[in-house]
Amino acid sequence: MPVIILGGIYSGIFTPTEAAVIAVAYSFLIGFVIYKEIKPSSLVDILKQSAVTSAIVLSIIGAAGLYGRMLQRLRVPDMVSQFAISAIDSPLLFIILANLLLLFAGMFIEAAAAILIFVPILLPIAISFGFDPVHFGIIMVVNLAMDVHPTGWPQPHRSITDS
Question: Would you say 123 and 133 are in contact if contact means Cβ atoms under 8 Å apart?
């Protein structure tokens, strides 16, 4: 499957989003035809579980987007940026504190939601210290991806209905 996905993306046959659809279709075909683990009777349960999973993730992202919008309206990112720029005098100190903040936040907040909340706050500070926005974005994503937060999304083998 990685050859199909990466080969299709790098050759320009399809985009990463289309690659996800190809991966799902390929996995379904393999599970249904070759391994015969997916039965037609279990298809409804599989679709229900994927709908629940998608709804949970999108609810978290939607709430984070709303919270981020509220913070922007209250000008919290501007106030935090001004304070941090005046209080932190070293780019090294800033990047260490940002790493610690993101590692800690990743324990409690889903990664996409944390990005929606922290990018408006931390990116202006990072730019003022001379960090490239793309480099800082990579730092954010890597820090947030290291944690396992309470929703358990980095563990795809667990079922939502498992107790």
Answer: yes
pLDDT tens, the chain, 163 aa long: 888 888 999 999 999 999 999 998 999 899 889 988 888 888 899 889 989 988 988 898 899 889 989 998 999 988 988 898 899 989 999 999 999 999 888 888 888 888 988 998 999 999 999 999 999 999 999 988 886 655 555 544 444 444 4
pTM for this model (two decimals): 0.66
Residue 93 and residue 25 share a domain:
no
Q: Which tokens sit at 62?
A: 């939607």
Could you tell me if 146 and 160 lie in one domain? yes
Query: Are 2 and 69 in the same domain?
Result: no
| Shared domain check, 84 and 71 | yes
DSSP E strand stretches across the chain: none
Query: Tokens in use for 116?
Result: 């929606």
Q: Provide the residue type at 43 as one letter.
A: L
Could you tell me the residue range of the domain that residue 100 belongs to? 42-163
Q: Are residues 20 and 63 in the same domain?
A: no
What's the rounded Cα separation, in Å, for the pair 133 and 124? 9
- Pair 110, 154: CB distance under 8 Å: no
